[in-house]
Specification:
Length: 112
C-alpha cells in the first residue's frame, strides 16, 4: 500500500509541476534499470561440451558465494575452440579458466 501512495504522489507531483508528459520516458528508464539489474544475475558460461543440470546448479551456487549476489540463470554456450575449462561472463566481469585462455597467456609470457 505504501508503494502505491509513493507512486501516486510522484505522478501527482509531475502533473502539478506540468511534467506529466515525462511519464513515458521515466517508465522506459525504470524498465531499463530493472533489465540491467536482472542482467547482472545471469551468468554467460562458455564450455567445450554442454553442462549437465547438476553442473549448472553447482556452478550457480559457487558463483553466488563468490560474488555474494544471487545468480538467477546460467546460460551455457558451447565453443569447442576453448578446448576445455570454462569462460564465465557475469556483467562486466570475465573469468577465463579455459585451456585456450591459459595457452594464450603462456604464449604472451614466452614472447615477452
Amino acid at each position: 500500500m505504501k508503494q502505491n501512495s509513493i507512486v501516486t504522489g510522484f505522478i501527482d507531483y509531475l502533473k502539478d509541476d506540468g511534467k506529466a508528459d515525462l511519464l513515458p520516458e521515466i517508465s522506459h528508464e525504470l524498465s531499463q534499470i530493472a533489465e540491467q539489474k536482472d542482467e547482472n544475475k545471469k551468468a554467460m558460461v562458455t564450455t567445450a561440451v554442454p553442462l549437465t543440470g547438476a553442473e549448472k546448479e553447482s556452478l550457480k551456487k559457487c558463483l553466488t558465494q563468490i560474488f555474494q549476489r544471487e545468480i538467477i540463470t546460467i546460460e551455457n554456450t558451447i565453443d569447442q575452440g576453448i578446448i576445455g575449462g570454462v569462460r564465465i561472463q557475469l556483467g562486466d566481469i570475465l573469468i577465463d579458466a579455459s585451456i585456450r585462455g591459459k595457452l594464450e597467456q603462456l604464449k604472451k609470457m614466452l614472447l615477452t
